[in-house]
Amino acid sequence: MLSTPRRVRSRILRRSPSKIPPIRKRTKPTTMSNRVIINKGKVGISILGGYEKISALVGAYGAISGPSGELAPGIAVQFRNAEEAEGYGVSGNALLQRHISEYFRVAAVGGGGASLYVLNLDNSGGTFADLVNDDAVRQMVATADGQIFNIAFDCIPAAATLVDGLNIETLPAMKAAQAFADWCWDTNRPLHCVVSGSGYGGPAAAALDLRAITESGAAVELSQVSLCIGQDWDFADALPDAQKKYADVGTLLGCMAAQPVSYNIGEVQTMSLTNAPRGVWLNAALCSHEKIRDVEAQLDTLNAKGYIYGEYYSGQVVFNDDHVCAPVKIDAEGNMNEHTMALSRTNAKVKRELYKVYLPKIKSTVPVDPDSGKLGTGMLKYFEGIGNDVFGRLQNAAEISGGITTVDPESNLLYGDKELKVFYDWVPMGTISRIKGTVNIKRALQ
């Protein structure tokens, strides 16, 4: 069995619409899915796949049907454009239509090829966490052959109670989303999750610090989870009651599908959300249904605490940053944790591509050195070259700055587990979060 420790040491710590049948029992990974095990490292434009543009939206939207079919509870339907979704009657639910139309509008910035699975669940009487934990979510990922790379969980919780500025159901849902992401990683289908911060109440000073979540005194790191508390105020203002405090997760999901994995979903040059002719994102707001311009003094605090929302850059609305719900960590060996969405998504792609190239080597027969019984230099270089080829392609696509594969020369392939031990190190791309300069007035430049 090929494996690596659960770490990618980098100078980083560490589907026309198709239906998926429902399931109520959680499925276990197949034997084949465990043949190549690539684990995360501990703290201490797209090439290859194309799956980066495949996303999923999970929510409870009630009865939805149209001339092309219905979004029956527990059955995922894949759409390749907003027009296909209209054929399923999504215009009957304003929020669902918003998420779908925004997803395809924004995803188009990155070119064609984006698609969206929509999973409508019956969550009557259930909590937000119950929706995330529904077995149909895992079945959707499994039946889609692991192609789903970005997923958003959308919910307007029934309860209105706030805890640390968030709806009482939000944090449990975030933790459930991380557990789901861990399952996806362990079954070789890594992805990144977005959770709706619907009902956020603030103020920023009292809001939960998403970069320092604790439970029973212990740190809780949700590195594959991002919380969205941004909304389009004009759209929200026309909605009834609690829906006015919805989160624009469809827009954020569209940015994820549009951007290469190593890019920030808030890149100012390419990811403007504003579309004046359509009247979209003219007035950015928080999920408290407060306009961004009215809470400007709170934005630095919200940004430091890891919340995602829209803010203004020369009149255009762009997401503030690609935060995840985890602290920034770097250990003495230079390993970093996945403390941004770009790091999380790039690490997921690295694992997927390495898994794909090493899987065919399972049960292959290789020569060993007759004196030591271990792999000779040539075979070590051969197996290292497989991984290095992946890193080279990723580097050429500007998705990583570089990477290296190291095979343990002490790997025993003659008896026991016959495990080839491989270590993968990669260095991410950098991001310019701000520019700080000094302007001087000179009487002459010479």
Task: Give the structure's gist in a few sentences.
With 446 residues, this protein is of the alpha/beta class.
Keywords:
DUF2586 family protein, seven-stranded mixed sheet, Phage_HP1_Orf23, five-stranded mixed sheet, alpha/beta, 25% helix, 446 residues
Estimate nothing, just give the exact number of structural domains.
1
Main pleated sheet? 7 strands, mixed
The proportion of residues forming helix, as a percent range, comes to: 10-25%
What is the radius of gyration computed over CA atoms, rounded to a whole number of angstroms? 23 Å
Strand content: 15-25%
Main β-sheet, spatial strand arrangement: 3-8-9-5-10-13-16
Average pLDDT number: 89
In total, how many beta strands?
22
SSE-based structural type: alpha/beta
Q: Can you tell me the overall shape? A: globular
N→C terminal distance: 67 Å
Low-confidence stretches: 1-16, 21-31, 42-49
Continuous helix count = 10
Region (Disordered): 1-29
Biased composition (Basic residues): 1-28
Protein name: DUF2586 family protein
Organism: Dysgonomonas termitidis
